[in-house]
Amino acid sequence: MLDFWKHSLTLEAINICIRTICNRIDLMDVRPRVYTNLCPVPKIDDKVHVGLDWPLMKLKMKVFWCLLSLDAERPPSLLIFATTKKSKVYAFNNLNKFNHIFYSVVSGTPNFRKIVQNLLQHNGFEAVTFENDPQAANALVDLIEELTEDGPVLLVLDDVWLGADDLLKYFRFKLPGYKILVTSRSDLPSFDYTYPLQPLNEKDAKALLVHVAPRPYNAPQAEYEEVLRKILKRCNGLPLLIEVLGVTLKGKPLYYWKGQVESWSEKETNLDGVLKLLQPSFTTLEPHLKECFMDMGSFLEDQKIRASVIIDIWVELYGKSPTSSSLAYMKYLDDLASQNLLKLIPLGRKEHEDGFYNELLVTQHDVLRELAIHQSKQEAVLERKRHSLVIQGDNYPDDLLLSQRESVRFLSISTVRSELPETTARLNNLQFLDISDCLGLRKLPLEIGRLDKLKKISMNKCWKCELPDSVRNLENLEVKCDEETEMVLWKGLEEKMINLNVQVEETEHNLNLLRLL
């Protein structure tokens, strides 16, 4: 009997050990939470939207009529065409006819695979890397087929440029319950239904300008009305120009308003005219803000950049000492946003707190980006020592890097390739390398350890990447990454490198991992 009990106790102990091991394996397999709200329809902000009530009402009626039939036989697409302003699609939050509404900005340099990646991740799938566009197209069809089982799906593609037919063909497939809606500044002839959004009429444009820049104190009514008329004529009903120009006029005396009007010439192209109207917004900036604003031209149109990344760039480029605080550069972002020169978007529902910019995205209207590029060209580029280079997509020829290898101090690359160009290792003055979200990246250049001035690497979601042995030659290196990348790539190098400092981004916390400690 005693032997029986001993045997039973031994089996129970073994079972306990097995359960303990299984629990530990399960805990180790738990990955940090990933932000998935990547394709929501933008919410209406608190700004005054003058003159949009009636156009949006008509637009919604058009949507209902054109998308009334949800069978596969009816053409699946509608184009919203706005010649002079970027259209708003916020009105489609309450289209109850659709169970799912997804929103994605396309812009002038579209990345089809990235759009599909975002759609998959938005719907709870793990981020994947596609080898080619047809592979991504198959995944898109599979996703939409699965979603339409729950009800109709509407996909909104915003800011599609002329010549994007090769991209749009992947989205335009017939499937019951699936429709797409496209906004563009160009009239795309391949669409079955088109709704042109008109500029603001004179009454609404005037109301918007008066709201942004009230009448100057003691300004004679007749003179004020004449100046107002000339300003509105040049703005041509474009809300962005009215808002940005209004900020520069707000609180200024009437003679300042007149001076702005008189400075405009009549001999300029449409784009030159727009940039000339925006010129006062740049001229009135402090010198340090001018530099920061021109840096925004390095990013692609409609690109959303983490505020923390931009702040890191500015600290590296303009920080005069190792103790330079990022707080000043956080204020620069707020200053530019207050001038309507860029927009800060909270990642979550709550507004950002002072000093916490990991939860903010920065975006900029493409016209303002053109202004930043225009101003950079006006400056003596070589004298100004343009330091930053931002490359997205797969087309980055080696000669582009070689031509700027002596000046580039900051390099940001977003690609679906499995490796970076070897010429990256020849950027002799490179100090900051940002390769975050390069999900397909498998290795860094073999000779990256030769970059003795490289002091910071940002590489979130790069845990599948392989570090070459030469990386151990880098000294005083600061690495910003997610928890998984830190554990897989950098944990074992702390004792093998001189002053390696790895900082884990604390955007999300996985409390389950704490149990392993």
Explain what this protein looks like in three dimensions.
Strand 3, helix 5 (165-168) and strand 4 form a beta-alpha-beta unit. With 517 residues, the protein is of the alpha/beta class. The two termini are 42 Å apart. The strands form 3 sheets. The chain has a 6-stranded parallel beta sheet. A 5-stranded parallel beta sheet has the order 2-3-4-1-5, sandwiched between helices. A 3-stranded antiparallel beta sheet has the order 6-8-7. The longest helix has 28 residues, at 2-29. Helix content is 38%, strand content 13%. It has helices at 2-29, 53-66, 112-122, 133-147, 165-168, 202-212, 221-235, 239-249, 254-262, 270-283, 287-295, 307-318, 327-338, 366-378, 381-384, 398-403, 483-490, and strands at residues 77-82, 100-107, 153-160, 178-184, 193-197, 305-306, 343-346, 360-363, 388-392, 410-414, 432-434, 456-458, 478-481, 501-504. It has 17 helices and 14 strands. The chain is globular and about 95 Å long. It has 4 domains: 1-30; 53-197, Rossmann fold, CATH 3.40.50; 202-283, no CATH class; 291-516, Leucine-rich repeat, LRR (right-handed beta-alpha superhelix). Keywords: Plant defense.
